[in-house]
Specification:
Elements lengths: L1 H14 L6 H10 L8 H12 L6 H11 L10 H16 L11 H13 L3 H15 L10 H12 L1 H10 L7 H34 L1 H8 L14 H28 L7 H8 L20 E7 L5 H13 L6 E7 L3 E3 L10 H11 L11 H12 L7 E6 L11 H10 L2 E6 L13 H4 L5 E4 L3 H12 L8 E2 L1
Helix pairs in contact: 1-4, 2-3, 4-11, 5-6, 5-7, 6-7, 6-9, 7-10, 8-10, 9-10, 10-11, 12-14, 12-19, 14-19, 16-17
């Protein structure tokens, strides 16, 4: 039974995007042989140590662990017995007589919650949590899983704002501001603990009814590196900002290591023959010329119109963060006009402030402020086309939606011919390409590669590929 649950747990981690190899799964199975089955904290620490290798994956691990190894009803108890006991405890604290229906008056439930929080009574709080989920969540067997909705229903009926106001009023007489602040912070922590317990109890009921696999699928969230940059929420964008710096630092180290190692160069015939004298003329140890790969020059052409501005921001941030592995990075922002913004990202510049300066100071609007790729490419060729060279890799980022303007493929072709390689990164889903005013299929034959890049994982893989130069790439669409 334990092996089956562990296997399902590992499969859920993989489905959520957490990389778990077969060797790591075997290590986890062997490790838990030395852990007490009743020690849940030890199980969690053991599985986390053997299965999770990245701090960004810990939240997905926590969610899956709570689903597959959550606390259930204690042996010897059942839900009916526990419910009867909870009702008796709550009604006793609230000072009301039960009606024998198995439910508690909502006012009595709120009063018991107030006392549990005011007195920091853990047992009473847990009884209130269990009864609130039974009575207020509206769960029905077999209905679709909706954990967030159930939590919303419970909190709305309990009216936490009113409970919090009552609790704060008990300390209103305190004249010391520090004491009031400490009391408020402690109260907020208790309320957050209440929400956590409600979520846990809701999850327990859902798992008992639908099974852990169904609940895990509903609670599954994409890893931060897989979040779509164009539709990310404000909280996700903030988390992405925190993830970019360590990601780019690790990427830069990996690129430097790959550059130092390089690949074996061409066969050095003279050295091979000279070394073969010691083996009777048999070339058993071929010698190769040491390659000296040069650092590429990167030119970014970023569409910063509203639909793709977030993606352009993260592209600039990742590329400039690994700038030490590149010979030179130049950045151009455009909407229907285009302007160079490289100087905005000079030494010591704050990236957020630099992005703000682009919006204020860069001349990216030529006519009406709607994307016009054809005009932007033409302006780039006229002003900076002669500065491209055989070491230059041009990266265009945007959805190729031209608002039905002339795409001006000839201008993009001139850019491609003057540079070593031209790549296009499109943050739009592939199935929407060439629909409406999208002309990505018109631009694709001119490019050395057109890629769907919608998240940090894909962006990281692309930058790693470009930053280690090879022979001129084969034109492709990915």
């Amino acid at each position: 039974m334990v092996v089956g649950v562990l296997t399902d747990f590992i499969e859920e981690l993989r489905a959520a995007g957490v990389p778990v190899s077969m060797v790591e799964a075997i290590d986890a199975a062997r490790a838990i042989e030395h852990v007490d089955l009743g020690d849940r904290a030890a199980w969690k620490a053991t599985l986390g140590a053997t299965l999770v290798k990245n701090a960004r994956h810990h939240e997905a691990f926590e969610t899956a662990f709570e689903v597959f190894f959550g606390l259930g009803v204690r042996p010897g108890e059942d839900d009916a017995t526990l419910a009867h006991r909870d009702v008796a405890v709550i009604e006793g604290e609230a000072g009301v007589e039960g009606g024998g229906s198995g439910d508690v008056d909502l006012q009595a439930l709120a009063e018991a919650l107030y006392r549990a929080l005011a007195e920091d009574d853990d047992g009473l709080l847990q009884a209130v949590v269990r009864q609130a989920v039974r009575q207020l969540s509206g769960m029905e067997p077999g209905r679709p899983v909706g954990g967030t909705y159930y939590l919303y229903r419970i909190l709305r009926q309990l009216d936490l704002d009113e409970v919090r106001s009552r609790l704060l009023a008990t300390e209103s007489a305190a004249t010391n501001p520090l004491e009031r602040r400490l009391h408020t912070e402690e109260l907020d922590l208790r309320l957050e603990e209440l929400r956590r317990r409600l979520r846990s109890e809701i999850r327990r009921h859902l798992v008992a009814d639908r099974g852990p696999q169904a609940v895990a699928r509903t609670l599954r969230r994409p890893l931060i590196e897989d979040v779509d940059l164009t539709t990310a929420t404000r909280d996700e964008l903030a988390e992405l900002e925190r993830a970019v710096h360590p990601l780019t630092r690790k990427l830069a180290v990996r690129l430097a290591r790959r550059r130092r190692r390089g690949r074996e160069g061409r066969l050095d015939v003279r050295k091979t023959l000279r070394h073969a004298l010691s083996t009777g003329g048999v070339p058993v140890d071929p010698r190769f010329r040491t390659p000296r790969p040069g650092k590429p020059e990167i030119v970014l052409l970023c569409d910063i119109s509203g639909s793709v501005s977030t993606f352009a921001r993260f592209t600039m941030q990742v590329v400039f963060a690994i700038g030490q592995q590149l010979s030179r990075v130049r950045s151009f922002a455009f909407i229907d006009g285009i302007d160079e913004v490289t100087e905005f990202f000079g030494p010591g510049a704050d990236f957020g402030e630099a992005i703000g300066r682009i919006g204020r100071d860069a001349k990216v609007v030529w006519l009406d402020g709607h994307s016009d790729y054809g005009n932007a490419f033409e302006l780039f060729v006229d002003r900076w086309g002669d500065q491209l060279g055989p070491k230059t890799t041009v990266i265009v980022t945007g959805d190729a939606r031209t608002n039905y303007h002339d795409p001006n493929v000839e201008a993009l072709r001139r850019i491609a011919e003057a540079s070593r390689a031209l790549f296009w990164l499109n943050p739009e889903q592939h199935r929407y390409w060439d629909t409406g005013d999208s002309v990505i299929g018109t631009y694709a034959p001119v490019c050395d590669g057109v890629f769907e890049v919608r998240n940090l994982r894909q962006l990281e893989g692309f930058v790693e590929r470009v930053a280690v130069p090879r022979s001129r790439p084969v034109r492709r669409i990915a």
